[in-house]
Backbone:
């Protein structure tokens, strides 16, 4: 793990090294989940699907080619992460969860014992329809 040195002027962040096994490039800001298939090693990450939504790894720090290694942010404030929703507006503080079959996080009404992997740090709203796909400020807590 890579932890940023303590600083009064910027938020604390933590990163892990991951390997992209998704079959395509992961763009900075994409969310990834740990591979739960036959080759599990705690480093392999891919796009979320219904079988591995609880294996959330974090947000990819910089573009990551297929089979390459890179950093994945697992904790702290992030100024730009992909957020997708089929609902209208969301407000700062809304819980974000990995999106089934997508690269982003999505606002979730989940409460209780479900893990809140991230939350919005700004309000966002749909433009002309009730669906949005954009980048937003988030706080990641995948540790």
Residues:
């Amino acid at each position: 793990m890579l932890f940023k040195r303590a600083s009064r002027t910027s938020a604390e962040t933590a990163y892990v090294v991951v390997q992209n096994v998704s079959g395509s490039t992961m763009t900075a800001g994409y969310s990834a989940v740990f591979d739960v298939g036959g080759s599990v090693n705690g480093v392999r990450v891919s796009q979320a699907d219904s079988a591995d939504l609880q294996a959330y790894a974090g947000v990819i720090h910089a573009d990551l080619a297929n089979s390459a290694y890179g950093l994945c942010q697992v904790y702290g404030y992030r100024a730009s992460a992909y957020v997708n929703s089929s609902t209208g507006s969301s407000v700062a503080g809304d819980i974000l969860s990995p999106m089934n079959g997508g690269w982003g996080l999505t606002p979730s009404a989940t409460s209780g014992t479900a893990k809140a992997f991230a939350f919005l740090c700004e309000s966002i709203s749909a433009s002309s329809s009730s669906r949005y796909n954009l980048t937003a400020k988030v706080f990641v807590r995948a540790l």
In short: The radius of gyration is 15 Å. Strands lie at 2-3, 13-20, 31-34, 44-46, 56-60, 69-85, 95-98, 105-107, 118-120, 132-141.
